[in-house]
Structures are given as structure tokens and as C-alpha cells.
Amino acid sequence: MKSAHSQKGMSILSWLMVLAFVAFFASAAFKVLPHYFDYMSLEKMITSVETDKAGDVRSISDFYSHISKGMQVNSIRDLDMQDAIKIKVENNEFRVHMKYEKREPLIENIDLVVRFDKEFRVRMP
């Protein structure tokens, strides 16, 4: 018979602790990843104004309309576009500043916060 010192491997308690850590980080990732996907979609919408000939974006209101339609297509409903995206026209190009943050509750009063802040220079088509 082998002694307890010669046995190798993890105990059930160790496996439960590893499983708890994996579950915690997976839960956090599943709460944060959708916000990153929304951000990447918004980034593509903004940069596509330059290459999209069918969009015919010539003014700030056209730009907001283009982004609004893209948000509907991509099901981005929990973001206020007017607060998150500021657009100016300078030297025949749009200057777009996208700045917003999202909070997801993790455990009771602990939140996960993702903050996005990026500026784009998009030439008018």
C-alpha cells in the first residue's frame, strides 16, 4: 500500500478551487466581451463612411444617421449615440470623438468598468 506522501495529483478541494477561479474569470469575460464587440462595430461604422459610396454622408446629421442605422443593424441598443459620439467638420473631413464607458455588475457592489476613448479623422467622400 502506498503512503499519502507518495500519491500525486490534485485533491477534490483543489479541483473545486481551480473550477471556481475559471468560473469567476469566465463570468467576467462574458460580461465585458459584448461591450468590446459593440465598440469594434462602432469603429467599423465610423471608418466605413470614408469608403462607403452608397452612404453619401455629406453633413453631420448624415453622419449621425449613418451611425444610427448601423447601430440598429448591429443591435447596439444600450448606448446613447448623442452622448458617446461628438462630430465636427474641419478641413473637408469629419473629426469624430467617441468617448463612453460601460459598467457591468460583478458581485454585489463591485462593478466591471470598460472605458472607450478614441478620435477618428474621416475624409468626406
Low-confidence stretches: none
Strand content: 25-35%
Helix content bin: 40-55%
- Order of adjacent strands in the largest pleated sheet: 1-2-3
In whole angstroms, the N-to-C terminal distance is: 80 Å
Overall tally of structural domains = 1
Q: What is the overall pLDDT average?
A: 90
Beta-strand segment tally: 3
In short:
Helices cover 46% and strands 28% of the residues. With 125 residues, it is an alpha+beta fold.
Care to describe what's here?
- The chain has 125 residues and is α+β, with helices and mostly antiparallel strands.
- It has one domain.
- It is 46% helix and 28% strand.
- It contains three helices and three strands; from the N terminus they run αααβββ.
- Strands 1-2-3 form a three-stranded antiparallel sheet.
- A hairpin with a 2-residue loop joins strand 2 and strand 3.
- The chain is elongated.
- The chain starts with 11 loop residues before the first helix and ends with a strand.
- The model has no long low-confidence stretch (mean pLDDT 90).
Topology diagram in text:
Blueprint: H1 12-51, H2 60-73, H3 81-84, E1 85-90, E2 93-107, E3 110-123
Antiparallel strand pairs: 1-2, 2-3
Helix pairs in contact: 1-2
